[in-house]
Structures are given as structure tokens and as C-alpha cells.
Design goal:
Layout: H1 4-7, H2 19-35, E1 40-43, H3 48-62, H4 67-91, H5 98-125, H6 152-172, H7 182-187, H8 190-201, H9 205-224, H10 233-259, H11 274-290, H12 301-316, H13 333-341, H14 343-360, H15 371-378, H16 381-387, H17 396-410, E2 416-419, H18 422-454, H19 462-474, H20 482-494
Antiparallel strand pairs: 1-2
Length: 495
Amino acid sequence: MIFTLQFFFLPVFFNFNINAKFFLFAFVVSILLLLLDIKSLNLHFPPIVIVALFSLGALSSFGAYHRPSAFIATGIFLLLLVYGLLIFPSIFSRGLDCLFFSLFLVFIQVVSSLGLYQYFSFFFSGKTTVPLIPYLLPPNKTPRVAGIYGQPNLFALLLVVGILVYIFLHLHKDILFKSSNRLIIKARYLPLMTTSLVFFLTGSRAGLIALVLSLMFIVLFFARRNWLSKGSVFRLEIINTFLAIAVAYLMYFLLNKYMAMLPDRGFTDVGMSADARFVFWTASLLIFLNHPWIGVGLDNFKFFLPKYINSAHDFLGFAEYEAMGYTQWSHNELLQLLCEGGTLGLVIVGILLFYFLKFTTLFRKNKNYSLRYFFSYLFLLPFIVQSMFSWPLRHPSLLILFFSFIGSLLTHYPGRSIPVSRWKERLVRSLTICVLLVAMWVGYSGIQMGSFFHNKDYKDNVQSSFIEFEQLEKNPFLQHPLLLETIPTYVRTAY
């Protein structure tokens, strides 16, 4: 399911890239709960954690402006908690293994090749208005490689995880190359160079921060255990790994320098400005201060932003006027959870602080942690770092990968097996059937909306326009409320 969600699309869906993937995730998890005969669960934490987090999310949903969006988001949040904290550790009691990571490396090479194809397509043909590969690669709009997600920052996160998986496999257990031939041994770094080159071509500043921090922690972890001393088998591997990444950066630099000499080919577009992010972050804090206890409801930030964005801009003082744009996300997951969930956001902030506290203990000299245990923590770091600047945890493909890593990390801790009695099994199945029915209803609504605009002969991006119009109609702080009165009349007249 992890790999399927990366490529899966339902063309008949409205917003087939995100909504359809959330539908697939809810559908598959529900079917698994119905089909799997789980006689016991491996618990690595008190069950009250899931109940408390879900209760806080549901409480904020009752006070939300647009309750359907809030309840759907809360339901997805519950499914992710059940998947990552209960189902995954119970089925995969030893966590993610070398087979998964080997398949993940193959997957990363496939998407990296697609990224190179996207880049050189822009190099030779420039901007395009149609997808390079239908339902797989989006149109080329900038020289920044957007990959299969159509967004450079999200694609950069996937590639950073791929780089870390490569380093982990070749340090923990070299399964790709078993040869004494020096040429073949050197060729083992070609996949790393390819992935690193595509990563740099995304132009993601948040991704670069995540990569640099991850590499720094790897060096620190090895240094604290004297694994970088002369004669250590890890020393040469780390040096070669860093050299491969450095060569990839040099190739990116030369390509970018040559592209800059061509019209409309250079990396002039660096994405969202820092001023815009500061404005969105400040608006999130202002929303939280006005709704500190239960928030405005999950997935309701987009409806409240217009009211607070002017105040946020005036409060900062230094942000440019053009920074007051519109977005569905705060581009900082913690701040968005604070303003949407209130107390739920504070609890998750506490969990994050606990994660970093545990992470720092890995570098104590008197502790002999394994390489697998260290990387189980490290795989989560890029997600957390980039979620402070973008919205990777709002994308289903990355979200399911994130909770899979959480489930794998939990398997390193001692747990207790709890037998599932007959009445508990019936209760879970009844609740699962309800979730499945809701998922099918939401999916049917998505198909209906998809057929609405697919059957219209529009030249522009109807999906994007329809989303913006829907948000405008539901926004509680419209500057022109008369529009709400004219919408029904317009619809009757048009159809």
C-alpha cells in the first residue's frame, strides 16, 4: 500500500491526486481491519493515547465552522493513528526490514529517473501546459523538478528519505553489490548520485535543511562511537557517500549555470517567499490566540485565513504587500495544528518535544544503540523539518510513509500483547463498517464532482478554479456577502 499510494490515481475523482489517495487509504485500512483475524494486539503505549488524541480532534470538529471538512479530517487522523500505532506494529513485529528498504531504493530510482526526464524535457522544450505523462508527471512550469507529486518541496522530502535509506542499507548491510571488482564497487554510488542530483534540481530550501541536518546527525552519531577513526569500515563508506553527494551538487551547479544562460530556463523561481511564510505563520498564531482551547477545527485554516491575514501583515511590519496571498495550509504543521486543534495541537507539540528529547539521548557515549535503532529515529527527522516550512503531512502519500516509520520505530520498544476478545472484535468490526461506508460516501461524492467538471469542455484548469470557488462560497469572512445570495440564482440560470 505504501508504494501503491505514490503512483495511484483515480481519473474519475475530483482532485485525483490527493482526495483519491485518501479514499484509497481509508478503503484499504478498513478492508484490512475486516479481513484480518487479529487475535492479539502489540501495544507499545497506553491505548488511552489514541482515545485522547481522537477525542480532542472530534471536540474541535464540533466547534468548527465547516464541520464536514473537520470531521473528515478527524476521521483520517484516527485511521492514521490506528494504522501507525496499532495495525503496523501488530502485523510487522520487527518493523521495516531490508526487503522493504531494498524495494524502496528501486522505487526511488524510478521516481528519480522520472525527475530527470522532467528536467531535461524542460531543458529542451521549455514550459508545457499538458502533463508530461498523464496522471503521473505534471506539466513543466518551472525548471524546478516537481516529480510525481507536482510540488518540489514534497518531492524533495521523498528524495531525502531515499538518500537516508541508501546510506542505512550500505552501512547496515550491503545487499546490492557483492563483488571484488573495483569498478563495480564504485558503481554502487551511481544510484546515490542520481537521487542526489534530482534532489538538488528540486531547488527545495527546506529539503536542503533537512538533508544537511540528517547528514550532520549521522556524522555526530558515528563520531561519538569512534566509528570515524582510522581503520574503521564506516569511515571510508561515509567519505565516499559524502563525495557522491558533493559530485551530484557540482553537476547541479554546472547544469544550473548553463541553463541560466538560456531564456526562461534558469532557477529564477524559488517558490514561496519568506515574507509570505511569515505572514501565514503569524496569521496561524493569531487564530490560535482567539481560539486557544478547541481551535477552529481540523482543515478549517483555509476558511479563517482571509480574516487574519491583514492583521498578520500589519503586525509584522516588514512583509511586502505581495506576501498577503492565499493558501490552504499554514506551511508550518505545528502552527496549523495549534490554530485548528487548540489543545490537540499543544499535545502534539508535547509529543514532538519528547521525540527530540529521546533523539538527543542517542548521542551519549555510554549508550550502545544499534545503527537500525538510530536510523529509525532519523527517518522521521526530514518529515518534521520540512513540515515546519511546507505541507508534506497534508499529502496522503507522504503521510502514510511517515506513520509507517512511526510504527516501525515503536517495534524497537518492549510492548505487551493484549488478546482481542469476541466483543471487542465485534465492536471494532462495527466501527470499521461505519468508516467504510463513510469512505464510500465521500468517494462517491468525489466521483460525482469529478464527472461534473470532466464533462465540461473548459480550456482552463477547472479543478483549481472549482476548489477556489468552493472555498470562496464557504468562507465565513467574505468581504462581499452578496455573492452568497447570487450563487443559487446564477446556478438556476446557468443550468
